[in-house]
Amino acid sequence: MTDRTYRIVVRLARGLFAALGLRIRVRGADNLPKSGGAVLASNHVSFLDFLFVGLVGVRRGRFVRFLTKEAVFAVPFVGRLMHAMGHIPVDRGHGEVALRRAVTDARRGEVVGVFPEATISRSWTLRAFKPGAAAVATACQVPLVPVVVWGGQRVLTVGGRASLRRGRAVTILVGSPLHPRRSDDPRAVTASLREATGRLLEQAMALHPDRPQHDGDRWWLPESHGGTAPTPAVAALLDEAALGERDRAALRPRPVGDPLPGSDSGAGNAPAFRSDQ
User: Is residue 247 classed as helix, strand or coil in its secondary structure?
Assistant: First the structure.
């Protein structure tokens, strides 16, 4: 796999960050191993999160291969870039295909990037985590590294919110890796991952240097932290309203598929996977 395109995109991203005057702070990047397979699992608050999480890999001299919804690959030119960078398309109706590709990449020493919430959180708090990230790490016996991004929602996010104002702060924290055993249930590992990510998110919000300037500027803070973002319950209703019929059909329960490669050869109780993971 050539990484020439990835290097070009990294330079372009850095140019974008400089043009926007973003004050990006990354802490804990050394928790990502410098070599060997790994899974980076991040919260999701903005459309630029893959660029921010990708910085963690760049800091360690590595490129992250993200699981990304298939619709992104259908965008002219963008899709070609995504394929050239080695990212993994996710068909919500057949998510097990992307998981198998992620397993293959992790086993050959790549860093796989996953957003376990599967979509941007409109409440800025953590949504329920799907077990795909934990399943890949468990099946491949590679580190599962939690990451949080905070502040990106002030640059470009759902609801048509975008700002070209310079000087926004973005805080990126990388936590200590989880090392699931082959016999661990990925759903239990997922619970541990979400707990660790929640602690990181609280730290990120506490460390973040920016604060609301007035009452109208509290939209980017969770309701639980004095902000005016929707509560998780209201956010769930907004997500449902925004979800197209095609996506709803893809997310309906389907029969359990085949287990991930390796799960039938000493992988313990690694489960089969449904398309909504």
Answer: helix
Domain-embedded: residue 88: yes
CATH of the domain at 50: 3.40.1130
Sheet containing strand 23-27, edge to edge, reads: 23-27, 169-174, 144-150, 38-42, 111-114, 64-69, 88-90
Number of domains in the chain: 1
Q: In terms of pTM, does the model score above 0.70?
A: yes
267 inside domain = no
* Structural tokens at position 231: 């509560």
Rounded CA gap, 233 and 185, in Å? Answer: 28
Domain around 217: 4-251
pLDDT tens for the chain, 277 residues: list them: 568 999 999 999 999 999 999 999 999 999 999 999 999 999 999 999 999 999 999 999 999 999 999 989 999 899 999 999 999 999 877 788 999 999 999 999 999 999 999 999 999 999 999 999 999 999 999 999 999 999 999 999 999 999 989 999 999 999 999 999 999 999 999 999 999 999 999 999 999 999 999 999 999 999 999 999 999 999 999 888 877 655 655 545 444 344 555 444 333 334 444 433 4
Residue 62 maps to a domain: yes
**Residue 213 falls within a domain, yes or no?**
yes
